[in-house]
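subagent[fold] <- orchestrator: predict structure for attached chain, return tokens only, no commentary.
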Amino acid sequence: MNIKNSILLRVRIAFLAILVVAGLLVYRISILQSEEGERWRELSKQVTVQYRAVPATRGNIYADDGSLLATSLPYYRVAFDPKVAHDTLFRKNIRALSVKLANYFGSSAASYERKITQARRNGRRYLRLGRKKINHLEKEKLAQWPIFREGRYRGGIIFEPVQQRYKPFGFLGARTVGFVNAQGEGAGLEYSFNKFLSGQNGQGLFQKMQGNHWKPVYDGSEIKPVNGLNIETTIDINLQDVTQASLLNALYEHDAEYGCAVVMEVQTGEIKAISNLTKRKDGKYAEIYNYAVGGLTEPGSTFKLPSVIALIEEANLQLEDTIATGDGLHRFYDRTMRDYKRGGFGTVNLEEAFAKSSNIAISRWVDRYFGMKPNRYIEYLQKMGLTEPLGFQLAGEGHPYIPNPNNKNWSGVTLPWMSIGYGLKLTPLQTLSVYNAVANDGKLIQPILVKKVTEIGEEEQSFQSAVLRDQICSPVTLRKVKTLLESVVEEGTANNIRNEYYRVAGKTGTAKILVNGEYTSNYYTSFAGYFPADRPKYSCIIVINHPKGYQQYGSDVAAPVFKDIADKIYATDLSLHQPLSPQFAREAGTYPVIQAGYGDDLQKICAALQIDQHADEDMNEWLRAQPINQKIRWKEEAVKENQMPNVQGMTLRDALYLLERQGLQVEYQGTGRVTKQSLEPNASLKKGNKVWLELG
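subagent[fold] -> orchestrator:
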């Protein structure tokens, strides 16, 4: 066979092969169209059209006075169906619409015109216009733009509703309010009460468009979502503001790593304020982690309160009982314990040891009475509720770590160091619970943050503080430790926060921070206590971690924050104030409405009413009435710079003038004349102080 015939044979074989393959393809296509076409068309619909969840509107989170802490606001994504508008409408208005879009969303008018025109030419039915979400007012504005004003079915505008969580107070209590992400993970109230807040999603038909966008198809088969329930918290938004501001100022002042503060109502266990602030890389502070609830750390000297309670219960120690602390150094087995005071405190009694926070005194007493029976010491801690979580309403509460005497890691030095707050771990909220129990006459109650779940004002579920222990110790012990806690502020490590208006009871804490198994020269500072000490209403704990500078102790760093918060609460809560002393009480008389105020006005009123009156010459402009029989004798009302005047009996106008002239911020409630004032007359003042008045 010659070469020509060979080539022809190969060409014919290749041609036949191509014919066979083409025939098979034609056959397969005909089978797909005739026999399997319906099945594949149905599968195509399932890919491009499907039922998808329609999110429910989350419930609101409220403060105790009804202020919104978190709510869902309607926002919209803006999309466009370029094929809907008829040709004349489109050609006439596309340029004007493109200019509007460019000015609002960015980019250029030419690029918008080109993109929309190309999408219309290609038959696209869905085009997302910008990534910006718009609110309802913006939606109404966009709905009046060229083409868009024709509406959805003639103009092609698509406003896709989306819910966005909004916190009206922003930074305030942000971590406590919390969040929930798309994966269902989160923190705070949003996460812990998600089953109430989330509601029940609905369902709707959606069509998949280019760019993996889903366009709703309103065919009447939609299932409406069921909105979430609301929750009402115990947070007092004013106390929250005060607490967070005071903590933030201290963190900046000491350049600390983080801090937290909790204010709780003693008898109810209601958390009125909780703030957690962490230093970011840029030097500013933000609510990133809830240290108060989940931050397990060695508490330091605030743990001396449980140790002293155990000692008094076990050994019936008296406040006058003494112990030698030597020169400030004491050796337990192979380790040396130190007191912060060089040279030591010598021989001290129990009250002095606690007030001055002697490590050696407390640890020696604990070692003396519990060294041979450490399990007995642990039993007292169990009675105080310190060995188990509080069961707090927020997810993520830390589990206390208390060493077990039966564990192989227990040694002869474990108990002495444990007695002063080392070698164990508690959260600030767990520490506060013991101090609150002392203030609450021994009753340990579970802190509470959410009071009720509601739907359109109707209560669905309520929550109350559980009593965890009826008594953490005997009444005798309770009286002793209350005295000890007051001694700390009156003459001990926290005497810098003592004041003449109300008494504070509490304990400072300073613990070295453990890093990689070694104690560093950085400190965890704290102060826990309650006020007023004689009739406690609020308990509070302050924690500031790793302060910089020369101030490193709880008395210098944490205690002043406690005082700042307590002062502001005391100034605004009139229920904490004792009645004015008799020298400032209004005198009884025939003319009760004529009491005090601007002298010229008062004397003119009396003259017009023909009331006998007498005033000495050269009196100042502010007077107080002293009714005598049917006459009035005017007395000078002392008004001194930087001192609180007595404004009881004055009209609101006079009181405001007098107080604001002193640079004070005045808030009031009621009508009529002033009947109560939050600061005692002659109290020292600073510009910017807040004063509350009650009128009646």
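orchestrator: received. Logging for downstream: The radius of gyration is 37 Å. The chain is about 35% helix and 25% strand.
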